[in-house]
Amino acid sequence: SKLVGLSVYNEKNESVGSINDMLTDKNGKIVAVVIGVGGFLGVGEHLVAVPFEKVKFSTEPVVYSAAVNAPAKPGGSTTTTGAATTAPAAKPNPWWPDHAIFNATKDELKAMPEFKYST
Questions:
Q1: 3-state secondary structure 77-118
Q2: Tens of pLDDT along 12-42?
Q3: Count of CB atoms within 10 A of residue 8's CB?
Q4: Least buried of 28, 33, 60, 114, by fewest C-beta within 10 Å?
Q5: Is the pTM of the predicted complex or chain greater than 0.85?
């Protein structure tokens, strides 16, 4: 239950989707992960099934970095600093992963064949 809904990132820390489901074989072994790509609140989402062994899990939180724009100075000039912002160091949860990693872009995942549940 902690894996469904988990965010999926690629190796460049770009968000590519989230885990919607885990598919098992007859013995209960997880064989594939269904990743939802795009859409908004599940509407228009493209589902793809990827082999479980191609998905990695990380307990370390994703670290974001970006250039910071300083506020405008009197006189109308702005200064861009090279400072990076990062997420505060959070203690990883030892019981379940923080996020999943699958090395593909959103466009590559959207180009994969859509997964459909059998009826």
A1: CCCEEEEECCCCCCCCCCCCCCEEECCCCHHHHHHCCCCCCC
A2: 999 999 999 999 999 999 999 999 998 776 6
A3: 22
A4: 28
A5: no
